[in-house]
Amino acid sequence: MKIKPIKTEQDYEKALERLDAIFDAAPDTKEGDEAEVLSMLIDNYENIYHPIEAPDPIEAIKIRMEEMNLKQKDLVGIIGGKSRVSEILNKKKRLTVDMIRELELVLHISASVLVSNYKLTK
């Protein structure tokens, strides 16, 4: 096993190719250990050079609604009436602290995601 730090995009691509080749290696084998170490190196490189930003709060709500197979009407009573739900999901109005608390409980979305700033539409 010859592993070195990932410093360039070329190193990154080579590491991805190697990981793909040994991905199904059994744990506690030479290739299994190599896959584990490569995964950590790749993850570190991606966190630095290819970070994935968290979605804005409304997108996070929509993603979770899709995951939970919920419709807009299912949020009525959680964040307000039908028109308030529409205003929130269409970014016409901002989430309130009470809405955030309810959404955190019902949709299991971290309040730290829900309190993030986002632009309203006009």
Summarize the structure.
This protein has 2 domains: 9-49; 57-114, 434 Repressor (Amino-terminal Domain) (Orthogonal Bundle). The protein has 6 helices and no strands.
Low-confidence region ranges = none
Mean pLDDT: 93
Any idea what the CATH superfamily of the largest domain is called? lambda repressor-like DNA-binding domains
User: Any guess at the CATH architecture of the largest domain?
Assistant: Orthogonal Bundle
Share of helical residues? 55-70%
N→C terminal distance: 57 Å
How many domain regions?
A: 2
Secondary structure class reads mainly alpha
Q: How is the main sheet built?
A: none
Detailed description of the structure:
It comes from Mesonia mobilis. InterPro entries: Antitox_HigA, Cro/C1-type_HTH, Lambda_DNA-bd_dom_sf. Residues 61-114 form the HTH cro/C1-type domain. The chain is an all-alpha fold and 122 residues long. It folds into two domains: 9-49; 57-114, Orthogonal Bundle (434 Repressor (Amino-terminal Domain)), CATH 1.10.260. It has helices at 9-22, 30-49, 57-67, 82-89, 97-107, 111-114. Helix 1 packs antiparallel against helix 2.
